[in-house]
Task: structure prediction
Amino acid sequence: MIVDVGPLDKYSVKAASAARVLAPLGLPFAATELLPGGPGGSTFDVWGVAPDEALLIGAAPTAPPTVPNAIVTDLSSGLSALALVGPRSRSILEELTSLDVADRAFVDRAIASAPLANVRVIIARHDLVGRTRFVILVDRDLAEYVWASTLAVGARHGLQPGGAMVLAD
Result:
């Protein structure tokens, strides 16, 4: 199933060391890894996209974080988030990207920037309750193309569009 998982608030945090500026806020950080919000009940998941950059992803509406010594940019209206869920999601991605999404290479909570259907995206594997799930962040202007391309490839695998309520079942 493919689902538009918006609305999500998305903030880029850039600093010489993302780990150093996020630690005082109780937000965990690891480059190329998705970590759930901090112990203080943070509403953000932390996507470590590089040593100097994290994406903070939270359910809308989430107030912009105040991060001293960092540049915080609101990307909420510029990025779309799609989720590809289910046992055939890996097979579909293998046809759309050169990224190795096998279990051994792309483990749960891994993140990578890669071309998908010839569009640069950020892909995170974020499994839910035993279900393989890949979350794809794509420029909003290209989201409809990525959605259509994924559905076209996924048709051979029985892919269906779904809604957010289906994920809660």
In short: The chain has four helices and eleven strands.
